[in-house]
Write a structure and sequence with these properties.
heterodimer, A: mainly beta, four-stranded antiparallel sheet, globular, B: about 110 residues, mainly beta, seven-stranded mixed sheet
Chain lengths: ~110, ~110
């Protein structure tokens, strides 16, 4: 069975500071990995995904994540936080039947302080 | 460019009442899903439909039924609502190796 853990239910950073949101997964097969963002009162939007190939994945709004198989991690980073990045972020894992077996982490709420 | 459309956006029910959440997608996707979102628990899959005419249980199906009316529409029904079903519900469809989400339905059961 697949599972996802996200360290820290709430992370606060100052505007302009590095954003680091942690995600670790377990999967019995090579996983597909995703980060989704949810702005207040909205549905989830895909930030980035890893399926195969290059392990450093770039997404929208300046975010990127690196798949590290040895650490079973897929941490999300952004060099410089912006106020508009305040949202909830979900890491997710899927096997290659990605919809039916799409497992989400509990989420991390990111606050950006002026 | 509608994507996934859910109705209603908000609903308040009394315990024992029934209701149906509607979902439609215009992306010609085969697979559709219903999730519920609760604080600290991420999204949990209630039911999914891999194609028109098929439905399968997800992680938390008890108390819910679904209908895949056609390729576009996938509805979620609560036959006898309970306070434990107070949650935010999201419909999604899948394509291009990712999920596309509706904007959600906030349901309160009193």
């Amino acid at each position: 069975a697949q599972s996802v853990t996200q360290l820290g239910s709430h992370v606060s950073v100052s505007e302009g500071a590095l954003v680091l949101l942690r995600c670790n997964y377990s999967s019995s097969v090579p996983p597909y990995l995703f980060w989704y963002v949810q702005y207040p009162n909205q549905g989830l939007q895909l930030l980035l995904k890893y399926t195969t190939g290059a392990t450093l994945v770039k997404g929208i709004n300046g975010f990127e994540a690196e798949f590290k198989k040895s650490e079973t991690s897929f941490h999300l980073t952004k060099p410089s936080a912006h106020m508009s990045d305040a949202a909830e972020y979900f890491c997710a894992v899927s096997d290659h039947n990605y919809g039916q077996n799409f497992v989400f982490g509990p989420g991390t709420r990111l606050s950006v302080l002026p | 460019n509608a994507g996934v459309t859910q109705t209603p956006k908000f609903q308040v029910l009394k315990t024992g009442q029934s209701m149906t959440l509607q979902c439609a997608q215009d992306m010609n996707h085969n697979s559709m899903y219903w999730y519920r979102q609760d604080p600290g628990m991420g999204l949990r899959l209630i039911y999914y439909s891999a194609s028109e005419g098929t439905t399968d249980k997800g992680e938390v199906p008890n108390g819910y039924n679904v209908s895949r009316l056609n390729k576009r529409e996938f509805s979620l029904r609560l036959e006898s609502a309970a306070p434990s079903q107070t949650s935010v519900y999201f419909c999604a469809s899948s394509g291009q190796e990712k999920l596309f989400f509706g904007s959600g339905t906030q349901l309160s059961v009193l």
